[in-house]
Amino acid sequence: MSVALDEMDRKILAQLQQDASQSLDEIARKVGSSKTPVWNRIRKMREGGVIGRQTVILDPEALGLEACFFVLIRTSEHDAAWQEKFLHALLGRPEVLEAHRLAGDIDYILKVRVRNARAYDQFYQALIAEVKVHNVTALLSMEEIKSTTLLPL
C-alpha cells in the first residue's frame, strides 16, 4: 500500500524520529496542528507501512559491547540453499546488527557488535562452522564518527 506524504506528514515523521516518546499533544504543538489530525495521520502512516515498530536506542558501550566490527564476506556459493542457510545463521546471531548483500567484489557486509576481540573470534568461529564462506575480512571500527537512525525527509 503506497501512502502519499505531504509536508505535514513529513513534519510529524521528523518529530517521531527525534523522539517517539513525545505525547500527541507535544507533536501537534510542534507541527502546528491539533491532536486528532496528528493521530489520524500517524495511524494512516502505520497502516501504510511508512512507520514500522517503535523501539528505544541503547548505548552499546554502556552495555559492555565496546567492539564494532565490519565483516566483509566473499563466498563461492550463490545458490538459494546456501543463501537460506546463511540468512538463518545471521538471524540467529544477535551480535549481527546489520547485514547487506552487495554488488562488487564483496558479497556481504555485516555490522557486528561484541564485547571485545575474543568475543568477535567466538562469533567468527561459530559462523564459519555453520556456513561455508570463501573469505572473511574483519575491520575493527576505531571510532564511530556518525551513527543515526534519522532518515532524510
Automatic annotation (TrEMBL):
Transmembrane portions of the chain: none
Protein's recorded name: Transcriptional regulator, AsnC family
Entry's Gene Ontology molecular function annotations: sequence-specific DNA binding
HTH asnC-type domain boundaries: 5-66
GO BP, sorted A to Z: response to amino acid
Keyword Transcription regulation in record: yes
Keywords noted in UniProt: DNA-binding, Transcription, Transcription regulation
Gene Ontology cellular component list: cytosol
